[in-house]
Amino acid sequence: MNIKLVNKIKLMDKSLQQFPPAANIIIILRDGETISPTAKTKLFQGDVLYILAPDNNREDLDLVLREEN
User: In the record, which residues are listed under signal peptide (predicted)?
Assistant: First the structure.
């Protein structure tokens, strides 16, 4: 799945450590550049995340990605 961070205020300037352990952020596209993320990589508005996660972890991932602040 890929997710573009637009208006996901609660994710802005946060590290990837808040994602469920089974959700692997494979790559981030930021301003035309490809970033290989680490646990300390911070997210910014407009980032496109490519996420690999098992179907049974979808609910946990959805909680993190909700639009709410």
Answer: none
CA distance 69 to 52: 24
Whether residue 22 is predicted with pLDDT greater than 50 in this model: the reply is yes
More confident residue, 39 or 7: 39
From start to end of 1-69, where are the E strands? 2-4, 24-30, 33-35, 48-52
Quick check: 24 pLDDT over 60? yes
- For residue 43, the number of C-alpha atoms closer than 13 Å in the C-beta half-sphere is 28
List the domains of the chain with CATH numbers: 2-54 (3.30.70.1450)
Pairing of strands 24-30, 48-52: antiparallel
d(C-alpha 54, C-alpha 22), whole Å: 7
